[in-house]
Amino acid sequence: MVVLSQIMFIRCLIVASALVALSGSPHATPSRQGATPRVIDITAERFEFWPAEVKVAEGEEVELRIRSDDTMHGFRIVGTNTNLVIPKRGKGYAVGRFTGSSPGRYTFECNRMCGAGHNFMRGELVVRPSSTGKLP
Ligand code: CUA
Q: Residue 63 C-alpha to ligand 1 middle, in angstroms?
């Protein structure tokens, strides 16, 4: 009987440790941060971005891939550290990440002199509140 109860005890330990391994550490659970962000392609061309309005859900992280259809441009999100050089056509694209931390409208603009309409070359990231789903 002593041997049997020892075996039962060991089995309980194995089951318990298996449950810990399954449910346990936060590292085992894929978090939203670790998830692959939605990719949004943006084209820059004198003197606009297309699309000029990009919608993001509150809390969502997106990857912006910005390419030029003509010359070199810039891409700056006002009020953030995002400040990219968009290589000229055929030379690849710039990659930036944006997280819709709080609802609102965030302006992005070209910040490399690219011609007469440079100052008008801009667009908006629109972060929808998760509660209502409505645009701010
Ligand atoms: Cu495009 Cu300045």
A: 21
